[in-house]
Amino acid sequence: MIGSDDSRQYTECLYEVINGREIRVNACRSYGDTAVIPGEIGGLPVTELGAYTFSAGRRKAPAGVWSDGAEDGLGLEETVGAGASQEAPPLLEGERLRELILPESVKKVGAYGFYNCANLESLTCHSHFNDIGAGAFTGCKKLTRLDIFMDEGETRPGLKDILSELRQEVHVIYRTKEGETRLVFPEYYEDAVENTPARIVSVKVYGSGHFYRYCFDGRELQFKDYDAQFENLLIQDRAELAAEAAIGRLRWPLHLSAEAKERYETYIHSHRAEAARWLLRERDGAGLKWLLKFSDFGRDELAEVIQTANQMQAAEELSFLMDYQHEKFRPKRRKFEL
Length: 338
Prior knowledge:
Elements: H1 6-9, E1 12-18, E2 22-29, E3 34-36, E4 40-41, E5 44-49, E6 65-67, E7 99-101, E8 108-109, E9 122-126, E10 131-132, E11 145-149, H2 159-164, E12 170-175, E13 180-185, E14 189-195, E15 200-206, H3 209-212, E16 216-217, E17 220-221, H4 223-228, H5 230-236, H6 239-251, H7 258-270, H8 272-281, H9 285-294, H10 299-311, H11 315-328
Parallel strand pairs: 2-5, 3-7, 5-8, 7-9, 8-10, 9-11, 11-12
Antiparallel strand pairs: 1-2, 1-6, 4-5, 12-13, 14-15, 16-17
Helix pairs in contact: 6-7, 6-8, 8-9, 8-10, 10-11
């Protein structure tokens, strides 16, 4: 999951030892905008992120010593307040943070851990990450991508807890040892409506995302309930989001029932254009190739998709579509008889 970019590989952590056997990270610094938390520091597992770890609104300086973030704990270390090196990278906090990658060992984040990280877009974690402090994701309105590995035997998987903190649209890569799938949890919002004569304030909820976040039995996601919400999504949300939800379940059919599979297939076959438009916007060439094999595009439909790719300046996808059009609708050779 970690790329080769130096800014992604090098994250220094301000840490302290807790209980004599675990590590709590209280701050990070980096020249990049991605925080990659190591699984170990100094031979001890990193199990916790402290309160206000990535928030720029701390009321007091965090405690601990600095490490270069390598799993063996070696590298730069210095006590906070002892005079940091002039070459030390800046704190990775607030609006600078765009992506966070947590190891399997991290289970907890303290109160307001990501408070007002307004540009945080992506979180990678394990289902062990299930102890979410109060207000941890407050102000994280751009956090729309979640990559989570569901660990076997986990009795309190954290997916539900994370989603309950986020009202915006969230796109989830759901991984298990059995396989993986792609899930969509749409946006929802609440509106207070006052009945002045009766002195009653009622709360109305809008958006299908509210229903999707109830597809859990305890903290376990129920795929049957998740797939059953597709009708609500069709009524309340945009067509491209429905296409994404259907494609995600069909391409990666983890725990997909025959009934739900048929429902998603019917939708894609009758909304090929919306599906292609979403894949083009995502620059998902592999997905576009899958769609063209899955559903039979007519000449006019394919021409519309090609026009969309041209307007989006999706050069790679456009090239593939042109080749596909040429092969599928190749002019028949005329036969001449004497």
